[in-house]
Specification:
Blueprint lengths: L6 H27 L1 E5 L5 E6 L4 E6 L8 H31 L9
Antiparallel strand pairs: 1-2, 2-3
Length: about 110
Amino acid sequence: MPREIDEAWIDEAIERHRRIDALRAEFERAVTAHVVSVHSPDDTIEVLVTAAGDITDVRIRGSLQHRNAAELAREVQAVVTNAAQAARWAREKLHDEIFGAFRTLGDR
């Protein structure tokens, strides 16, 4: 016995696929454009990181004359670790904003 093809369901699935592609492209643009600023625990280093995880700038405030290399290395490591976490957080927030209202096929 031949199976009936639900043309409307197929059309809806195709449209949903197109919408997902559009949302995915919007998400990719958003994560590369969204920049988060993160500071070291002592506030002497600032790192700008995109939601995609790319560090776009590093700024050092104040003088480094009275800092030893180990202290500076700890601050850099801390701020880079925090930048990675901030990028992940920003990516998740953008994902929720962009895809949050999107229904699955099962929700129809």
